[in-house]
Amino acid sequence: MNDTASQGVATRTARVGKYRWRVCAMLLAATTINYVDRQVLGVLAPFLQTEIGWNEIEYGYIVTSFQAAYAIGLLCTGAIIDRFGTRIGYAIAISVWSLAAMAHSLAGSVVGFAAARFALGLGEAGNFPAAIKTVAEWFPRRERALAVGVFNAGSNVGAVLAPLLVPVIAATWGWQAAFLFTGVLSATWLAGWLLTYRTPDDQPKLTKAELDYIRSDPPEPTVKVPWLQLLRHRQAWAFVAAKFITDPVWWLFLFWLGKFLASEYKLSLSTIGLPMIVVYLMADVGSIAGGWLAGRFMRMGWDVNRARKGAMLTCALCVAPIVLVTQVDSLWIAVALIGLAMAGHQGWSANVFTLPSDMFPRHAVASVVGIGGFAGAVGGMLMSVFTGAQLESTGSYARIFLIAGCAYLVALAVVHLLVPKLQPAAFERAPAA
């Protein structure tokens, strides 16, 4: 019976078609480029610090300029993407970040790098709102978490590719070439996007069977809602809370993981690469597995609410053991704990990013994602300040990782209190102009 059921599922999938996964592959490529672009400066920072002559405080200003712009951009770009649609909105975002990435090659001072990073943050902020909205347009609800998990894996691919490619390019053609290279990658993706992307209703290569499958969810309301109006709904605050509480843990790993491994296990630049690659590869697996798990629960007959929160709980429990990482003496046990936590975060993100499309109509998804992303970026900035102060005063990561390990369970409790059934937000009529 199981073999017969499996064959039936495979037959239905083949009959429906798979063009939507080509679109998801483009989102994966864009997210990978996004993270390569933002990681270039981190890879080159030790060399540029000597070359340009900035000090640690000035480098902090450069990093903060990116975070601030990213927060502002997430607040604004969602509304822009909802206004112009994913095809044009995504094109605007990647055009800005492509030009900003290449502009780094012209910088020769702290102010120049800070300005380039600010522009990069504004452009890159559009990636996730545009990608999430694209998933909402191209995938039925039961597949969205998996699709988000697939393209979100690009964040880890980019984090692995940057330390592999950037030093080689910089050593061969100069540090300016590294920034130009990533900008050219972005521009190449943009050309492919504009030439091939259409919404499902306008895509001639999409079969009627696949279009019907994509549109198999119940009809959604069509009223247009300004993003300020969205904040009147608990559903928006649930997503905002989830991002504000848990995004800082991801920023913590991005900015402090290398420093933690180097200080605790005496790793050098030549030996730190392999542990970090292993950690990000584990995060890749978690990103896809977390999205797959929610879909698996739905195929078992669970409703969206139970499936989504069940997957989120599983991911939250994967992060919890990170509280033990300061107590272990083995590097590879520490890598396993950190990798499990990062895998849990990425699986969590695959499901959290799907919440807006679970609870809001498609035309409002990018705006909700942008608002939540803004909250997550602000939380990340606060976490960076706390981490720096904590390490300066105690030199210990114990309290930092304790907070990280508990954050996801707290966030899930808040989400459940705000939206116990993940009920869609109700929009009765369009607001007055």
Automatic annotation (TrEMBL):
CDD domains, per database record: MFS_ExuT_GudP_like
Entry membrane topology: Multi-pass membrane protein
Keyword field contains Nucleotide-binding: no
Catalysed reactions listed for this entry: aldehydo-D-galacturonate(out) + H(+)(out) = aldehydo-D-galacturonate(in) + H(+)(in)
Record's subcellular location: Cell inner membrane
One Pfam family here: MFS_1
Transmembrane segment boundaries: 59-81, 88-107, 144-169, 175-195, 236-257, 277-295, 365-386, 398-419
Gene3D superfamilies: MFS general substrate transporter like domains (1.20.1250.20)
A Gene Ontology cellular-component term: plasma membrane
GO molecular function, one term: hexuronate transmembrane transporter activity
The keyword Cell inner membrane is assigned to this record: yes
Domain called Major facilitator superfamily (MFS) profile: residue spans: 23-423
Keywords, comma-separated and alphabetical: Cell inner membrane, Cell membrane, Membrane, Signal, Transmembrane, Transmembrane helix, Transport
Highest taxon listed in the record's lineage: Bacteria
Database matches in PROSITE patterns: MFS (PS50850)
Chief location of this protein within or outside the cell: membrane
Similarity-based family: Belongs to the major facilitator superfamily. Phthalate permease family.
Protein name: MFS transporter
Annotated organism of origin: Lysobacter soli
